[in-house]
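Sample entry (370 residues):
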Amino acid sequence: MKYYIIAGEASGDLHGSNLIKELKQLDNAANIQCWGGNLMQEAGGALVKHYRDLAFMGFAEVITNLPTIFKNIAFCKQDILQFAPDVLVLIDYPGFNLRIAKWAKIKNIKIIYYISPQVWAWKENRVRQMKQCIDKMLVILPFEKDYYRQKWNWEVEYVGHPLVDVIEQYQKNEPKMVTAAKPMIAILPGSRKQEIEVKLPVMLQVAAHFPDYEFRVAQAPGQEDTFYAPFLAPYKNVSIVKNNTYGLLCSSIAALVTSGTATLETALFGVPEVVCYKGSAVSYAIAKRLVNIKYICLVNLIMDKPVVKELIQQDMNVANIVTELTALLTDEQKLQAMKTDYAALKTLLHAGGHASNKTAKWVFDMAQKS
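Predicted structure, serialized as tokens:
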């Protein structure tokens, strides 16, 4: 069977790679072409484009890069037609993937969408188009199944969250720990250059207030060592960790994490965290008017309460981060409450099953039928 998979970010590359591994277990002759990253390529996908050439963060940044985005979309359509897949699998990345889905439906290509766009947060009107052009929607957040059924009369499948399986498997296989002479605090500043440039300088300034701790910055896949060097140079108790974010989390007593999948990964490893988010002033102003959610952190969204502290935009400053990090390091009651909530979160995400395996079965079955 022939499978075409599109992921546009680091998290999509991770989930796409595990999907490819499961597909190859079901289909020995699987021919997989993909947009993603190193992980999907290593799993056996033929990489067409790397996500580092696709990811543009924020409204203003997307508008600036529109010519590149449209060029990529046109190229993608041509490549899909030439490959002629039995099924097209779209992983999150809605700005790009929903355009491809609408076009692919017209071309009578079977479509599975794995990891729903966050339409419950903004742009709900997209659901009407999604219902028309997506053959099967597979969701990974427990509340999404009821959201689609009750509000849109659309039956989608909850497959569980793939990170639960990924992290459990990692923990079983003797994690590659990160060593330090002092207690360690992780800094996860994101995967895109645009967000790292905004958030990392602020997060690094915090290190100067904690001389008795070692701070380690998780280097994003696809980013070069030379990109981080100028940021880290002024700080004696800060260094980089390359290709070992999970080992870093296993070795850390606390973490400063930018919003996104990393907040959930940190929680599933049981590491107390402060969520730090800051975007461009223009992008944030637009988002504030359009986005309708109580929290930006996945941990808080899923649990529907403030499990971890979110420091957003102007609140993400050195003084506030120092205050919150100090509380994580000294307040035993706060730590115990967070760990209890982390355990409940893991149970909730496990309820859907083994996400990559269930998704692969859906994909393989649809490919056979097509």
